[in-house]
Amino acid sequence: xxxxxxxxxxxxxxxxxxxxxxxxxxxxxxxxxxxxxxxxxxxxxxxxxxxxxxxxxxxxxxxxxxxxxxxxxxxxxxxxxxxxxxxxxxxxxxxxxxxxxxxxxxxxxxxxxxxxxxxxxxxxxxxxxxxxxxxxxxxxxxxxxxxxxxxxxxxxxxxxxxxxxxxxxxxxxxxxxxxxxxxxxxxxxxxxxxxxxxxxxxxxxxxxxxxxxxxxxxxxxxxxxxxxxxxxxxxxxxxxxxxxxx
Amino acid sequence: xxxxxxxxxxxxxxxxxxxxxxxxxxxxxxxxxxxxxxxxxxxxxxxxxxxxxxxxxxxxxxxxxxxxxxxxxxxxxxxxxxxxxxxxxxxxxxxxxxxxxxxxxxxxxxxxxxxxxxxxxxxxxxxxxxxxxxxxxxxxxxxxxxxxxxxxxxxxxxxxxxxxxxxxxxxxxxxxxxxxxxxxxxxxxxxxxxxxxxxxxxxxxxxxxxxxxxxxxxxxxxxxxx
Lengths: 246, 226
Known about the structure:
The complex is a heterodimer of chains A (246) and B (226).
Chain A: H1 3-15, E1 30-36, H2 42-55, E2 60-64, H3 69-80, H4 86-110, E3 114-118, H5 121-130, H6 135-141, E4 150-155, H7 158-168, H8 187-208, E5 212-215, H9 220-234
Parallel strand pairs in A: 1-3, 1-4, 2-3, 4-5
Chain B: E1 20-25, H1 32-45, E2 50-54, H2 62-71, H3 76-100, E3 104-108, H4 111-120, H5 125-131, E4 140-145, H6 148-158, H7 177-199, E5 202-205, H8 210-225
Parallel strand pairs in B: 1-3, 1-4, 2-3, 4-5
Helix pairs in contact in B: 1-8, 4-7
């Protein structure tokens, strides 16, 4: 049996969770999120989903979890003056996400788009939980945001993810390495430990929110094939064709 | 011993917070600043070390918040999260360290103001409560209750024009600033009086003379400290 088929079968098992639901209709737009560690290849996969949907004439929009200038400035100042705490670190990012959610994601959904989110609230859930924020507090903080219709989790052993990142990008930033957590005085070691902790959080979230797990060690095109099959099965794509948005 | 409203703040040892947290709430023009100065004098005269703090002054996001207020481009949820960030920054970097050092923190407003502003704008009360659930229950909270009519008169004593946010102009209550101000402040006042039970505010009649208000407040503080 082909490796891709094995992966698809495990995905199909996951889909049993959705069996009782009816096919998602184009009444309010569709939100598809991609989550996973840095280096898991989720951005590549989501970009390919976007290309597939737009080339086949669908209303689709890809939105990324990029920090705005405001957040970058606040984080920079916070670091320089040693101001950031787990709570304010979380809140600064929540401000940024809220702005993007209310001005971009929510309007896209209201106007019947398929919105593809490269990282979503689960990124904050994992990262901020590792820093010590409680799950209950985090769930409440982000409760204004819609839970995605489908969340793909690009699962990769943290060791592999870390090696992928370190081989491409030797400079790891302070917070990306989790240096504020005092895990290890050396940046690369800190990064390794931090990513392992984030990975463990993602695994827990995957259970809690019924993520669709994709084996991110597989070849890119095999993963993409699986993802496209799942989307085609779960979503009434015909209702998102160009020209049919009311 | 100090307690948190809903859950402990990450990485905060409550047993080491020996100071006192005293909060003064009230709209702009309610005489808060005057009272805080007088109370501080009184406390320092008695030998207590005092730290002041007020809203929208955080090092972390103060400048960005000011820009956001001027630009009026953020939605209500985003703006309330912005204020929450500002508040929590000061809470963790000013209030907590001062309490740890045994100071008396005289807070020129607490999260109640932010909560009231959110609630009059239709925010989910549970959402707001939970966000501020990681804050300390103060030792005393005074609310200076002043009629909106009186507030507007005091506005003219210190400024030439009305303030956009204090007048609630973002809410579309009226095209007329004075009318909008009166409606908005009346709504805020109602919310505050509703929050009074839940949060145990001591309501002080802010229409009385300055000295008589100070006397009321100081009497309560004296009781707390002995």
